[in-house]
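Researcher: Structure prediction, please.
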Amino acid sequence: MSVGLINLSYQSGITIVYGTNNDDQLSNSNGSGKSTILTEAPRWILFGNTSKDDSADDVINEIEGKDCYGKLSLSLLDHNNNSKEIEIIRYRKHTKHKNSIHLFIDGQDKTVHGKGGTQKAINDLIRLPEETIVSSYLMEQGMGGRFSLLTNKGRRDFIESLRPTKVWEDSLKEARKNVIAIEKEIQEIQAILNSNNKLIESHQADIEINQENLSKLNSDQSAESIEQELSELRLEYKDIQNNQFEYTKQLSDLEHTYSNEKKVLDESNQNVIALGVCITTKTSELNKLSKNKKESICGLCKRPFDNIEEHNKHIEEEIVKIQSELNSLEKKHTNLKTILNKQTQGKDNLEKEIKSLERTINDNLINLSKIKSKGSELKTIKEGFTDKQKIYADAISTLNDKIQSLQQSNTQIEDQIKTLNQTLINNTQLAHTFSFKGLRSYLIINDINFLNEKLCEYSKKLFTDTIIQLDPGIDEAESTLSTLDIKVLTHKNKQRSFKSLSGGEKRRGDICMQLSIRDLIKSVNYIDTNLCVIDEIFEGLDQSGIDLVMKLLSSTYDQSTCMYIISHNTINYQGKTLNVVKSNGKSYIC
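Model: Predicted structure follows.
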């Protein structure tokens, strides 16, 4: 750039800015630095950029080659009219400050050290995009012309770009991202729900199988037969146990009787033996006496008796006596033998009866063992039935618990899907709202209506019988703005195309659009600035057209507005002027 050291204090009212390029006489005012001072310098100080997308070092004066800086002082008012005095100083290839930025707020240094820190602080103060801020105070040459030459989509996009759309775009991206994420989550949860439903169907089928098996088992006659047989065995077992008790008691009584009889028999036997011994003794005595009688000698001393007759008589008497005793003993012995035989026969009968009872008892024990064994077998079979019944019943209970758990899980999943579906609807509606089919189209239509009101207002001041209007075409199916034509209406309600206008009429139409667009920028972004820089908008206008535009600008903006009109041509205006002169590679204000 060719700007030298310039100190410019913005003044209220209209100031016409002229230029002289002494370094190039053929260029007249072109290249003098008018636009650089009034449009590029404030932009560079605020944002570090230029409209020409110059490189960082292109802003440095070509002659000096270093120590470039710019300082901008301004007041920022919020919605409550609270004022902040801002001072921004930006350096480039400066000997002392290098490429730094300094920020002061109400006289206090708020410079943030570190890359991009101060620029972020400036952006946070302004809170609007660079193009929005620049468009609020600058009407560049050809701005309206560019709009009239845009395509339908280009015009729609341009009008939409006048709003702070980043939040719209971010919201649209976030809503669409949420829609995709929620749809994916719904699909995953729905897959779980479907899997649970399949498991429920499988469990229900298993329950039917187990119920069928349980029903068959319950209806099986063998189970009842086993129970009946077990009942009969229990009765039989009880009867045998009772009989066994009776038999055991009888056996005990018989054994007691047998014991007593045996004692009596033993005593009788002893008596028979004793009688036998007595009989033997008496017989021996009788034999001895008979022998002594025949021999007439003493059996002890072997001497003959003195009185044999008396001796024999005595022996006869003894023999008779002993014979009588012997007969008595033999008779008694015979009687005892008879009794003994009867007792022996009674004992034998008792032994037989005891043996019979013992056999009966043994048979009963065998029967009891058989009944026990069969009862155990039947009980095992019955327990098998019972175990199977329990297995089927437990399986049914477990499956029902699983189904209940899955159903509870499904209820929660369905509630979750319901919530997610509502969230999906909300995000889909948000995506629609932030898309061209939603609120954005509605706002575009409102913005177009605003522009048409302003176009009508400005057209009446720049034309006699012509009104410039934007004609939006709405796609009813998509509820979107499909076309945006520029039409020209006359007071006789006739319609012409914008292309049919003359060059001067098109230029006035462009100016109407420029002013309307600037008003829209300020309206939608809630910006109100007292600076207005108009760069070369008179090109293609005759003097009467210039006079109409000047009259329009004077009536549109109040006296507190600092309006700078950059022009190549001399304008019939008696107000303030500013001259920018370029000499020896540097531009100055004269």
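Model: The chain has eleven helices and 13 strands.
Researcher: Thanks, that helps.
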